Amino acid sequence: MISNAREVTRLAMRDAVGFPSITLLASMTGFGSLVHESGLPLGIAIAATAGIWGLPGQLTLVEMHVAGASTFFVILGVALANARFLPMVVSFMPLMNAEGSRTRWDFALVQMLSINSWAAGLKRFPEIERKFRRRYYIVFAVICMSAGILGTVIGYFGVGLMPRPIALGLIFMNPLFFAVLLAGVQSRPSMIALIVGAPLGIMFHLVVPDLDLLLTGAVGGSLAFWLNNRLSHRESKQ
Amino acid sequence: MTDSSGLALALLTLGAIAGTYIWRGVGVMFAARIKSDGRVFQWVTFVSYAMLGGLIARMVILPIGPLMETPLLFRTLAFIIGVGVFFALGRRVLLAVFIGVASFIVLVSYF
């Protein structure tokens, strides 16, 4: 159990400076170049990265706006593309904070939560004494967000210098990175839920594109929950 | 760009930011009432993973944005290569992502 402030800070820096920062830098470069190509100003690119802080929602904003969708539908589309933040926050906060110790700061800190900091927290928190977990998260998430914003700016100005296949590759990086990041969590429950969710995500997207992620989460999550309980139950009987 | 369309775009972006933040803010409110060893908490963790699994599959198979112009076969192939490298070569994230993305760039450039 790590119970030393300086050690926690160092651990968070070491964890964040590696692949999370590199992939964020690269994938937000892809996003910055897309914003530039779409003829939108740099301020919008930075605001979208820092304010939305989730690539699927950011892409939705740019794509739907460029396609000429009305304001209401763009905002709804972005919000629905980011619905995962609700269960992610609910499953993250109780691990980070001591029981019932919500502070007003949580409402600000939660803005920096992304798939990177979520996965890192789930993995590292058990090794870190509770009162230092928040420190770990803040250091980790600030580094990630800085890398993301830097990447956005680089992509925005570098778009002309970047061959098209590379720009496409940087955007393609996201789903691949998410997949290996989550596969690295290596617990049976997470694997079951990921594998159950994947086909449902496609199916619901084809049938009800607006509510696809919400339905995937509710149906797939419950199904995976049930499957995992059954498997555990069967094992405990043997 | 005229001033009024610039303003409209800024307001649209602010709306999108607020629309995303609602999930996070509501999450903080719910989280305070949930015990980290209870069944509700477990279920919510499953929901998160299922949503992420669905999102990843959607991004590869039915992407929005610039990836739409690339063939499905290239995306699927490069994705399988990346994940395959991850499991075959000692679960190194950076290596897997690099090789997967590099295969995608090669496919898109030369085929």
Task: Give a written overview of the molecule.
The complex is a heterodimer of chains A (238) and B (111). Helix content of chain A is 79%, strand content 0%. Chain A contains twelve helices and no strands. Chain A has helices at 5-17, 19-37, 42-52, 55-66, 71-81, 85-96, 104-109, 115-124, 130-158, 164-183, 188-207, 212-237. Chain A starts with a helix and ends with a helix. The model of chain A has no long low-confidence stretch (mean pLDDT 92). Chain B is mainly α and 111 residues long. Chain B has a domain at 70-111. Helix content of chain B is 78%, strand content 0%. Chain B has four helices and no strands. In chain B, helix 3 runs antiparallel to helix 4 (93-110). The longest helix of chain B has 29 residues, at 3-31. The model of chain B has no long low-confidence stretch (mean pLDDT 92).
The number of distinct β-strands of chain A equals 0
Structural class of chain B: mainly alpha
User: What is the oligomer described by this structure?
Assistant: heterodimer
Question: Whole-number average pLDDT of chain A?
Answer: 92
Strand content of chain A: under 5%
Largest sheet composition of chain B = none
Number of strands of chain B: 0
Q: Please give the count of helices of chain A.
A: 12
- What distance lies between the first and last C-alpha atoms of chain B, to the nearest angstrom? 38 Å
User: Which series of helices and strands of chain A comes N to C?
Assistant: HHHHHHHHHHHH
The overall pLDDT average of chain B reads 92
Q: Give the strand content of chain B.
A: under 5%
Biggest sheet features of chain A: none
Radius of gyration of chain B: 20 Å
User: Structural class of the helices, strands and pairings of chain A?
Assistant: mainly alpha
Low-confidence stretches of chain B: none
Rg on CA atoms of chain A, Å: 19 Å
